[in-house]
Amino acid sequence: MRNHYILVIDVPGIKEYVFGTDRLVEIRGASALLDDLNRRKTEIFLKRKLGESNVECVFSAGGAGQFVITAQEDSLKACVKELKGFFVRESKGGLRLLCGWAEFSEENYSDCLDQAHFRLKKEKEENPLIPCTQLHAGYIRECDSCSGMASRSNSYGDEERFLCDICVEKVEYGKKRGLWREFAEYCEKKGIKAERPKDFKEVGERCLARKDYTALVYADGNAMGKLVKAIKTKEQFKTFSEAVDQSVREACHEALPAEGKIPADILLLGGDDLMVYMSADTAFPFALDAARKFEEKTKEKFASEPFFSRLLGGKGLTISLGIAYGKSHTPFSIMFSQSEELLKSSKKAGSQDTNKGEYYAPAYIDFHISSSYNQIKVSDSRKTHLHLYEPSAVKLYQKPYSLPDAQAILEHARNLINADIPGTRLKRLGYAPFMGKINGTLECLKLYIGTRKKEQRAVIRDALDRFGCLFPWREIKNEKREAVEVTTVLTDLIELAGFIK
């Protein structure tokens, strides 16, 4: 008997698969392969097996998907089994697929979806993918990227490597346009030919402010989980997923610097996720523009949808971002882990903002320069180098920043550079807080008074005033701890000024 079913799919271990290498071509290739399987090939496969009219795609992006299927349960089971094998074959064993389904009815959509997700979770926990060492011997060559068993030689650019089948497939997809295609088409409409960088080194060479400096920008949606749980119908879910996916893609394309040799490459784009590796001087402006455009676009798309407009209070959805700065030779794994940590910090700040609502959290941005410290974890760097304890606790930064504050600190950093204040004086200003509260104040005043031009002094004073700092400290009374917190914007400001063109 043919019934209606809701089918949910999920690809576990995406981060390990996509970001488990330090080669740009493999990272973007793995991401493109996953995106192609997820957004296009899964729906085509299901329709070919079960019939065009028997498959309705609710959404399929970001490593997950949801479909409404009309079929006999035995046919659905057989199709799901074949689909899992299809994912393994297409990725050469690099990806696996989890599926769950339940009988579907429009009246009980959310309950049916919960049952399908429960079945998917059950499959995941009962059949875990347990990593194990592969066979190694002195006469077997290891893969140069993942240490698996190499199967063939592969060339990209001037480099030749011995790779396993999984990594070869990543490289082959990395040679294609992949996620770059939509951005290239967007640029072509503007009469621009977008030239993609071939490796991390080339991205660093395109940094105009400080050569070889790069950044990894990682963004994720705020309060999305709560909003998804409030959805009651299939149509609402479809509207929501399409609006989010389209908005994050459009925001990314419009925010990227679109001129000639693009100093960036898109590593992850879909659902509410965004990751771009780019030159250090373009990262902060890109993050600001992407966050602002995403909120504007979702607000516009939901304006005609009473359900979402009511839940969001007429506002749009938001994303928070983490920016890990480094050099082109900084191991990607370090920049990735730091961007994840910074993203969590931003999302936490948004969830604690006084302007947050039940389904809304303001966008925040956090950033860190990995090459300035020895610690891998951002929290360790800040605890070791950016906290003073004399005689009371002093924090030498104000990160993360809300979107208005992030825009303000960028503008003031530009003003410092445009005022032609000598670079050595700016560096000394940035180091002043590290001297302690009293000596730091004296050093800051000395440098301020020693700045001869009135316009330059005004730029320094305006920047400190905007963030409530008095040469250079800001004291905030913490009522919960019954103590005074001392912070400064000066360190953050000078760090950011170092990446202004």
Structure description:
This protein has 501 residues and is an alpha+beta fold. It has 18 helices and 16 strands. It has helices at residues 14-19, 24-50, 73-90, 109-126, 165-175, 180-189, 200-205, 224-230, 234-255, 280-302, 306-311, 332-351, 378-385, 403-418, 423-431, 437-449, 454-466, 490-497; strands spanning 3-10, 55-61, 64-71, 98-103, 152-156, 159-163, 213-221, 264-270, 273-279, 319-327, 364-369, 387-389, 393-395, 401-402, 474-478, 483-487. The longest helix has 27 residues, at 24-50. It is globular and about 85 Å long.
**Radius of gyration in whole Å, from Cα?**
25 Å
Number of helices: 18
CATH superfamily (homologous) name of the largest domain: Reverse transcriptase/Diguanylate cyclase domain
End-to-end distance: 67 Å
Strand content: 15-25%
Strand order of the largest sheet: 8-9-7-10-11-14
Task: Please supply descriptive tags for the structure shown above.
alpha+beta, 501 residues, 48% helix, 3 domains, four-stranded antiparallel sheet, Alpha-Beta Plaits, globular, single chain
